[in-house]
Amino acid sequence: MMQTWSQWVLGGHIIAFVFWSAALFGMAGLLVHHAQAAKENDALGCARFSIMEKRLFRGIMSPAMLAVIVFGILLIVLNTGVLTRGWLYIKAALVIILIGHQHFCLAQIKRLAANQGHSPLYYRALAIVPTVLVVAIILLSVLRPY
After folding, report:
1. Which family does it belong to (predicted)?
2. Domain segments of the chain: what residues?
3. How many CA atoms lie within 13 A of 50 on its CB side?
4. How far is CA 18 from the centre of its chain?
5. DSSP tag of 61
């Protein structure tokens, strides 16, 4: 069976979103552990977590986010009729909030590197943000309620 371009683009969009989500969830864990290392005055641990955070942000999180955006725009171009659906605008708003969360994480990476981070509990609570957003984005994409 011949696959259409939109199916390939949708596949790329989903794959990129999986990678981006995994990176966001992973970053939450790294920030918690980095804050714990800072609390315990573990300079070597802090240095290691800083390296891991930067690599995750630059190597996976940012490229995956860009791929999600590009594939999402391509999906809209291939099916302009979706622009009349309300769920798409809510999904786009949630994606923009998720992008903001990613950049907030970058600010936290810099704070922790400067030994000015928050408590591990703060970062555990912060981990809820991408979880809620990802679930809402998936539900809107699948259910397309309006």
Report:
1. Belongs to the HemJ family.
2. 5-143
3. 15
4. 9
5. I
Which tokens belong to 136? Answer: 């809402």
d(CA 111, CA 8): 40
* Burial class for 76, CB neighbours closer than 10 Å (0-12, 13-18, 19+): middle
Q: Give the integer Cα–Cα distance in Å for 34 and 29.
A: 9
> Based on the number of CB atoms within 10 Å of its own CB, is 108 exposed (0-12), middle (13-18) or buried (19 or more)?
buried
**pLDDT per position in the chain (146 positions), as tens?**
557 899 999 999 999 999 999 999 999 999 999 999 999 999 999 999 999 999 999 999 999 999 999 999 999 999 999 999 999 999 999 999 999 999 999 999 999 999 999 999 999 999 999 999 999 999 999 999 98
Tokens (6 digits) for 75: 């999906």
Segment holding 84, helix H or strand E: none
Contacts (Cβ under 8 Å, ≥6 apart) of 110: none
